[in-house]
Every structure is written in structure tokens, then in C-alpha cells.
Amino acid sequence: MSDKINYTEAFEELQGIVTEIEGGEISVDELSEKVKRAAQLIKICKAKLTTTEEDVNKILKELDTATKDGDDE
Amino acid sequence: MSEEINGKKIFSLLEVTNSIKKTIADRYKSSFWVKAEMNKLNYFPKSGHCYPDLVEKQDGKVIAQIRCNLWKDDYIKINSTFQRVLKEPLKDGIKILFLATISFHPEHGLALRIIDIDPSFTLGNLEKEKQEAIKKLQDEGIFRQNKTLKLPLLTQRIAIISVNTSKGYQDFLGKIENNSWGYKFFHMLFPSILQGDKMAEQMTTQLKLIKKVRTQFDAVAIIRGGGGDVGLSSFNSYELAKIIALFPLPVLSGIGHITNDTVVEMVSHKSFITPTDLANFLFQEFHNFSVPVQKAQETIIDKSRRLISDEKTKFHSEVKLFRSLTENILIKSRNSIKEQVQSLFQQSQFLFKNEKEYLYSIREGIRKGTNTFCISAKQEIKQFALTMKKDVASQLNHYKLIVNQNAQQVVQGSRVLLQTRRERVFQIREKCSDKTLLLLKNSYLKLNSIEKNVTNMSPKNVMKRGYSITLLNGKAVKNFDKVKVGDNIDTLLFEGKLNSIIKATTKTEEL
Predict the structure, then answer these.
(1) Nearest C-alpha of chain A: how many angstroms from B136?
(2) Confidence (pLDDT) at B325
(3) Best residue in A5, A20, A52 to probe B by mutation, most B CBs within 10 Å?
(4) Between chain A and chain B, how many beta carbons pairs sit less than 8 Å apart?
(5) How far from B66 is each of B101, B105, B248, CA to CA, in Å?
């Protein structure tokens, strides 16, 4: 699941955890699980800031295909 | 001069064109102001002359059209004025108010010669067109459309519309590629010139391309800078502005100029004065994401630690409380048990003592009772033994006497009995011999009588008296029913035998 989560969801979930922990809604029992999850989310978010996955060649290929298909909106 | 052929007056072509030229020259002696639309400037760089194609349109339809001449010197003068006043060169598609003369050239025909153009008219018109474009976009309800799009949390993938070699583009790239925070952007250039007549067309083409791969991008950035303030009027084009307003991605413009905003900038999602400002905005977006993440991390660490430490403290105090409570309870219980033990001990001692005394008294009672009973029983037994002794002695004496008497009687009785029996046996012996003789005599008599009877009863003697015996098949007939008519029978008689056949039978009536 954590592999597929996008950074927006990760960010929102992270904010959720912060709100919960600030509001004292997290018990010691859940704490470990939540902190583990938060660490994952922070990793995802921080990775997003410093990496991109897009590929210019892929986009050019896509453009090429789109043009050939006569997709002219 | 004209000549006559077959009664017809005939002119040469030159004569006609010269005549037209003269007529027009006579009619249009002075110059005059005309307003029209510059359909095509038709500038010839080689000669430096322009041959503008002017039109007048009504509802988009051309209702008048004429070719003009704008000679090199006039063009240079007019163009520099335009650049100064309008920040735009003389170009296609603008409305102009110009001073003209009309002339007719036998070889090139009719033409208007443009002597001067009033830039303020064009400027007013451009401004009017800009206002009209704004109004039209507003009326269509799309003026703010691009602004309603939401930028993602991170505007990271950017489609750039710019010129590869432009300073603005290079500045922008330098900024976003080497930022001190290590933020990483993905960008791709969709090249388009950003001024002049061809701009709207090229930008439209590139925007269409971007639209096709829009899922790969978060936003479009129009980057222009260092080009000065000239040639921006296309940014007021209604058509281009409409494409941008309706564009499915947020459009960020960093066009870089200092005069009033263009319509394109107005409809853009956000507009920045310079490409650098645009880059700073993107960084700020990243900060807006990064800072909360960092803060979240700190908060979570801090709060978690605090939570654990609070919990620990709470736990310790609970343990303390628990210990003191249990100790209290233990002490109380222990004391209570001690008291109970004490009390139990005392009570049992008391009870034992009581029971012991009671048992002593019972034992004493039993002992005394038993003693009394034993003494009396002993005396009773003694008494009884004494009495019994006397009784037994007297009884024994009594029976001794009786036995003695009986023995004497038995001896005497036996003697008498023996004498009697002996006499009787003698009597019986005598009687028996008498009686036997008598019995023998009687039996002899009886036998004689029986012998006589038997002789009388023999068949021979019976038949002598007249009786006969009937035989059927050698057997005596005893039953009447055995003999039928026709049977052969024998009849035995005294001294003979008869043989006969039965003729009839008659049963005797019952006697």
C-alpha cells in the first residue's frame, strides 16, 4: 500500500497523524504503529521533493503517437 | 490621339490609362486621412518598401480593399514612431489612420500612397481591442477559469513555453536547477517565440501539444524576459487568451515587462513580473510542502517522546500508588489476622478448659456410678449364686429319689412282663396246633364240592341237557348279526354234528 500512495495522500495522511498526536488522540498502544507510518509518509514526501520520475523521451513519444492519431483537439 | 476604324472611335490602352491618371490627378489634388485595417503589411526587406493590403470589414466580411504603397523612407519614419508610442512595430492586423494620396500609374494601376500613420489611433484601437477581449472573456464566463484550477501540492512538472536562447528562459532554468534546497523539478521546453506577429500562432500550437500530454505536467509556465517592452500586443489577443483561460492545466506567466498587464497574464492562473519571481513562487510552493513535513517530523518526534515520558511518569506514579495501597491493605489485613488469631486462641482455650472440666465431671460421675453398680451387682450375683446352689442341691436330691424309685419299678415291671409274655407264648403255641387241624378238614370238604360243580358244567353235560353250539367257519357264533342268509354253518350236539345252510334269520325280541 505504501508503495502506491501518492505524495498528496501521504502529505494529507501525515497531517492527519500530526493533528491526532497534537490533539492527544493517540494512545501509547497505537503510538508505535503511527510513528512507523509517519516515518514512511515523511520518507515519501521528502523523496518527492528531491526526485522526479518523468522522462522527456517518453513524453515526446507520446506526443508523436497523439499527433499520428490525428488527435487534434 | 484616337483613330477611326469602320466608324468606331478607338483608343490605345495607354491613352485610356493616361486619361484615367489625368482624371484622378485632377480629382484628388490633395492628401487626405483614411482609416482602414492593415490586412497585410507586405514589407520587402530587400527594397525596404512596403505594399500594404488595406481592407475595411463589416461583421468580419471585407467590404472594401485596396493596395497601397509605403515607400522606404516613409516606412522607416512611421515604424520608429510606432515603436516609440505603441511599443509595437507596424504590423499586420492593426487598425490605422493614415494620410494618403491617390494616384494611378499606367503600368501598376490604382494605388493609395501612405505618407504618414497616426500611432495614437492605433494605440487607442489596440487598447479598445484589449478591453473588448477582456469583456468578451468575462461575458463568456471564462475570464477567471484558469484561476479556479488548483495547483497540486507540489508544482513540480512544468511545461515551459519560451525561446531556448532567451535570457529569461536561461535565468529560470538556472534558478530551478540549482536551488540550494535540492528541490527537483521536471521541465520540458515547448519552444515558441514570445513577441511579434507569429507568436499567437506558435503559442497556440505548443499549447495544443502540451494539452495532449497534460497528465505529465502540473503546470504550464510562459517564460519571457529580457526582450524589452516591445511586441507584446499579441498577449492581448482574445483567441490566445481564451485558449489559456480554458487550458486544463494552471498557466503561470512570467512575461517580464513593466507596463500594464496583458490579457494573457490576466487570465493566467498566476502572473509574475519576471521569470525569477515565477521560480521563487515554485520554491515557495515546495517550502509550503517541505516545511510542514519537516515540522510534522519534529512534532511527531517531540510529541511521541512526551507521550512516552508522560505515560512513564503516569505509570510510575500508578505503581507507587498501587504499592502504597497494597502495603496499607496488607498491614491492615495482617493486623486483622493477628487479632483474629489472638481472639481465636483465647476462645479455644476457654472452650477447651470448659470442655475439660465438663469431661472431668462426667468421668467422675461415670466412675462413681460404675462403682455403685458393680458393688450392688456383685452382691446380687453372690445372692443369686447362693440361692442357686441351694436350689440345685435340693433338685438333685429330689431327682435322685425319683430315679431310684423308677429303677425299682422298672425292675419289678420287667419281671412281671416277662412272666406274662412267657405264659402267653405257651397259650398261643397250644392254640395254633388245634386251629391248623380244623382248617385242613374244612379245605378238604370245600374241594369235594367244587369238583362236583365242575363236572356238572362241562359242555358234554350241558349238551346232554339239550344245548348246542353253532359254528361258522369253525368258530362259535356268539352274535346273531354275524350270520347271514346263505351262510354254511355247523351245529355241535351231544353225540353229533349238523351241517346246514341258513334260509332265513329272525332276531329275537329283547327279553
Answers:
(1) 22
(2) 93
(3) A52
(4) 91
(5) 13, 14, 42
Which residues have CB under 8 Å from B133's CB, separation 6+? B236, B237, B238, B241, B263
Half-sphere exposure of B415 (CA within 13 A, CB side): 5
CA-CA-CA-CA dihedral for B107, B108, B112, B116, to nearest 10 = -100
Task: Give the separation between CA B217 and CA B175, rounded to whole angstroms.
Answer: 19
Please name the residue of chain A whose CA is at the shortest distance from the CA of residue B292: A15
User: What does the pLDDT read at residue B4?
Assistant: 82
Q: Give the total residue count for chain A.
A: 73
Q: Select the residue of B186, B289, B299 nearest A52 (Cβ to Cβ).
A: B186
Neighbouring residues of B464: CB distance < 8 A, sequence distance ≥ 6 = B494
Q: pLDDT under 50 in chain A at which residues?
A: 1-2, 71-73
Contact B293 A59 (CB under 8 A): no
For residue B385, what pLDDT band results from cuts at 50, 70 and 90?
very high
Q: Which residues of A touch B303 (CB under 8 A)?
A: 21-22
pLDDT in tens, B137-187: 999 999 999 999 999 988 999 999 998 888 889 989 999 998 998 999 999
Q: What are the grid coordinates assigned to B379, written together?
A: 452382691
Q: How far apart are CA B291 and CA B451, in angstroms?
A: 174
Residues of A with CB under 8 A from a CB of B: 7-8, 11, 14-15, 17-18, 21-22, 26, 28, 31, 34-35, 38, 42, 45-46, 48-54, 56, 58-59, 62-63, 66-67, 71-73
Contacts of residue B246, defined as CB under 8 A and 6 or more positions apart, other chains included, come to B142, B145, B146
B61-69 and B109-118 strand pairing: parallel
Cβ-based neighbour number of residue B41 at 10 Å: 21
B300/A35 touch (CB, cutoff 8 Å), yes or no = yes
> Which residues of chain B neighbour A62 with C-beta distances below 8 Å?
212-213, 216
User: Can you read off the three cell numbers belonging to residue B353?
Assistant: 478448659
DSSP state of A26: -
Cβ–Cβ contacts within 10 Å for residue B166, how many?
20
Q: Are A26 and A20 in contact (CB under 8 A)?
A: yes
pLDDT one-digit tens code per residue, B222-248: 998 755 666 777 888 899 999 999 999
List the single range of B3-7, B163-167, B268-272 with lowest mean pLDDT: B3-7
Copy the grid coordinates of residue B245: 483561460
- Amino acid identity, position B419: Q
Looking at residue B422, its amino acid is R
The pLDDT value given to residue A5:
81
All three cell numbers of B102: 491617390
Shortest distance, CA B37 to any CA of chain A (angstroms)? 31
Report the 3 state secondary structure along B287-300: HHHHHHHHHHHHHH
Chain A residue numbers touching B183 (CB-CB < 8 A): 49-50
Q: Give me the pLDDT at residue B354, please.
A: 93
Q: Searching chain A, which residue's CA lies closest to the CA of residue B181?
A: A50
Q: DSSP readout, B305-358?
A: HHHHHHHHHHHHHHHHHHHHHHHHHHHHHHHHHHHHHHHHHHHHHHHHHHHHHH
